[in-house]
Design goal:
The protein is built from twelve helices and no strands. Helices cover about 80% and strands about 0% of the residues. The model has no long low-confidence stretch (mean pLDDT about 90).
């Protein structure tokens, strides 16, 4: 019930920080060139807002996210995410495909840590830091497989001169990395939470569906579906401690 009551605050924290990241991520000329091919409905390529107007909103959003975190919690993840956002978008972090994956993993970790701190009203490093270790495991997994989102954008990335893992190491090799990341990540999470086959079946099944589609359907539509399935698999991994907790409670 406490988490349910905290939901509006969690959503506010997530939305404000994600909005700032998207503003940074979509305002550069290379990003606009790619979006004209891959995502023409976005505000800047669609002509609904200019890059200069976007920059003005960015200046406003920094004090906004600090005020939000001061009011609802999650200040350290907020500051960390802002630093990673600047590194990724303004300091060349996204130019190197492997650094891009690492920053994606760390960024997702911050986006998970912030709402968790808002809901629990305590630091993820409290009580022995088990929550911090768990989020670190998830961040490592995301680092390994985050380029799954790049398969659907290969045409636009190539036209914009971007370097991504699929373009650097090759399509099949990049897909094999996702397969290994899924197997390793699911195995580590099951080991960490001491999950049996009953509790872990949904994670293995969703991961298998994701990599199966990734290799079977290599069209733009198929790769978009694979990224959605990847998100579903990550959600199932996050539910694993809940399933394991239910088993312990039943015993």
């Amino acid at each position: 019930m406490e988490i349910l009551l905290s939901s509006p605050k969690m959503i506010l924290w997530s939305w404000s920080n994600l909005f700032l990241f998207n503003l940074h991520n979509q305002k550069h000329s290379a990003a606009i060139a790619e979006d004209k091919i891959n995502k023409p409905w976005r505000p800047i390529p669609a002509g609904r807002i200019t890059p200069r107007q976007t920059e003005r909103i960015i200046y406003v959003m920094y004090p906004v996210i600090i005020l939000v975190s001061s009011a609802v919690g999650g200040m350290i993840p907020c500051v960390a995410e802002a630093f990673l956002c600047l590194w990724y978008n303004e300091l060349g972090g996204a130019a190197d495909p492997f650094l891009k994956n690492l920053l994606n993993g760390l960024g997702y970790g911050c986006f998970l840590a912030g709402p968790l701190e808002v809901a629990t009203r305590r630091s993820i490093f409290s009580e022995g830091g088990k929550a911090a270790i768990w989020l670190g495991v998830l961040a490592a997994i995301i680092t390994t497989i985050s380029h799954t989102q790049d398969f659907r954008d290969m045409e636009g990335d190539k036209a914009a001169g971007r370097s991504t893992v699929p373009l650097i190491v090759g399509d099949s090799t990049a897909r094999a990395i996702v397969l290994l990341g899924m197997v390793f990540g699911t195995g580590v999470v099951c080991w960490y939470w001491e999950a049996g086959w009953t509790e872990s079946m949904i994670a293995w099944t969703s991961g298998g569906l994701m990599v199966g589609n990734l290799f079977y359907d290599r069209t733009v539509e198929g790769d978009s579906a694979s990224w959605n399935l990847c998100s579903a698999w990550m959600f199932c991994l996050m539910l694993l401690p809940v399933f394991c907790g239910m088993k312990t409670h039943d015993v």
